[in-house]
Amino acid sequence: MTDSTVFDQDYLRDPHEVFARLREQGPVTPTATAHGVKIWLVTRYDDVKAAMTDPRISKAFAGNLEVFKANELEGGDSRGAAAVVPDNMLFSDPPDHTRLRRIAVKAFTAGRIRALRPRIEQISARLLDPLGTEFDLLEDYAIPLPAMVIGELLGVPEADWPRLIRLSGTAIEGSAHDPAEVVAAAQETLAYLTDLCAAKRADPADDLISAMVAVHDEDGGIDDVELISTSWVLMVAGHETTVHLIGNGMRALLAHPAQMARLRADPALLPDAIEEFLRYDGPVATGTYRYTTEPVTIGGVDIPAGQLIVVCLLSANRDAARYEDAGRFDITRKPAQHLTFGHGVHYCLGAPLARVEGEVAFRHLLERFPGLRPAVPIDRLTWRPGMLMHGLTALPVRTRP
Ligand code: HEM
After folding, report:
1. Quick one: which atom of ligand 1 is closest to the CA of 342?
2. DSSP 68-97
3. CB 88 within 8 A of CB 230
4. Rounded to 5°, angle at Cα 338 from 332 and 342
5. Residue 105: how many CB atoms within 10 A of its CB?
6. Could you identify the atom of ligand 1 that is nearest to the CA of residue 347?
7. Which atom of ligand 1 is nearest to the CA of 289?
8. Degrees, nearest 5: CA angle 79-82-87
9. Which among 147, 103, 141 is positioned nearest to 237, based on CA atoms?
10. What count of other Cβ atoms lies within 10 Å of the Cβ of residue 116?
11. How does pLDDT run across 294-348, given as a tens digit for each residue?
């Protein structure tokens, strides 16, 4: 077992190149996290898909915690990775998962997403209106948009949005922060959401937390801690993911002007283009941690019980065994069937919302800025560090030559 990490400078420069090498070398790669915990990477499409539905591979939080500690390498520190608000669907297996997901499914209806669309349009316009001829598409647009949408969806008062953006940023990319900072952020978020859920119970409004409180009070099934934790997962999962759908998708279009021109000429291609943004350079590089509850064999390799498994979605989506010319960006490619939203029972609950946000964002950006171009050469753009997310540090653009 190696104690060096695959998530090094080479990975930061070009994760696709690293994953291509790993897929070539074998179905699974033993490596370590940046904080010295032993993990196994699954990199090929079919294996990633199978691992996400294998009942012997668990996401249950308590078990994960034990396996984390057991797999700390010398000098390793697993506290940061374990510092989450845990009692929710993302960190549980059926039947707990089924029970925990149900309440959110009941409240997060298609009708609620439909009703949110005009608000997303307004928020997007509010962000775009003051922009000049040069701006950072991430900082000035892609980062605030989904944060404001998730704040609006959950019913978080607008004054608190910046604080929640900071907290969810620390939570989602634990591997890029100091473990103590991640623990503190998780505690602060928990305290905030506890107060918010109490406030919604006392004074319900037309928002997702109030709706979940109502479902919870009507048919029970989950306790208060679980309700708060479910609000947490929606907040965290709904933010940075969508940021990088917009950022990575726009980077791909700017790097491929012929595809950009094609999309401008035929806006009806947008839904397919969004699926290709998600496949080609999806915002989520890996699933959250899983572990083996008993020995499993992945792609012919035996992995003992008690091992941490990381499914590499970014890698699966570029697997040449699954996609013809997998490294080619093609907005007319279909059907994509990418794994960017996961697979199986944990399939992303927010996928319909993310798609609506993506549609609004790209439509507005393309309509408003017919001359949009990168303000720095595309190959100078840099990726942010971390294992879970795949997104740019900045995307400077100009609207005129
Ligand atoms: C482009 C944007 C998004 C991407 C790529 C994405 C990706 C994912 C992935 C890969 C998973 C499964 C993780 C795993 O199995 O380890 C997941 C789960 C989840 N996502 Fe998303 N997500 C996005 C946007 C959102 C939004 C906007 C929300 C909510 C407002 C959301 C809420 C959730 C929730 C609650 C789960 C947990 C589902 C479960 O465990 O049953 N996501 N997402």
Report:
1. 10
2. HHHTB-TT---HHHH-S--SSGGG--TTHH
3. yes
4. 150
5. 12
6. 12
7. 16
8. 145
9. 147
10. 18
11. 999 999 999 999 999 999 999 999 999 999 999 999 999 987 799 999 999 999 9
Q: Residue 155, Cα to own-chain centre: how many angstroms?
A: 21
Between the alpha carbon of residue 353 and those of residues 26, 109, 341, the distances in Å are 36, 10, 12
Q: Does the CB atom of residue 238 touch ligand 1 within 6 A? A: yes
Indicate whether residue 249 lines ligand 1 (CB < 6 A): no
- Where do we find the tokens 């934790």? 229
User: Which regions of 132-189 does DSSP assign to beta strands (E)?
Assistant: 134-136
**pLDDT for 176:** 61
Cα distance between residue 154 and residue 156, in whole Å: 6
What is the enclosing helix (H) or strand (E) of 235?
Answer: helix 224-237
Which of 112, 228, 241, 250 most suits a substitution to test ligand 1, by most atoms within 8 Å of the C-beta? 241
Within 8 A by CB and 6+ apart from 86, the residues are: 61, 229
List, in sequence order, every residue forming a beta bridge with 182; answer none if it has no partner: none
The owner of tokens 């303000």 is 375
How high does pLDDT run on average in the chain?
92
| Phi, psi of 320, rounded to the nearest 5 degrees | -65, -20
Q: What is the CATH number of domain 9-398?
A: 1.10.630.10
Query: In this structure, which residue's CA is closest to atom 40 in ligand 1?
Result: 90
Backbone angles phi and psi of 18, in degrees to 5: -65, -45
Distance 400 CA to ligand 1 centre (A): 36
Q: Is the pLDDT of residue 32 over 90?
A: yes
Q: What is the dihedral of CA 113, 289, 338, 55, to 10 degrees?
A: -100
For ligand 1, atom 12, which residue shows the shortest CA distance? 342
Query: What are the tokens at 346?
Result: 């944990």
The 10 Å Cβ neighbour count of residue 96 is 17
Q: Closest ligand 1 atom to the C-alpha of 97?
A: 41
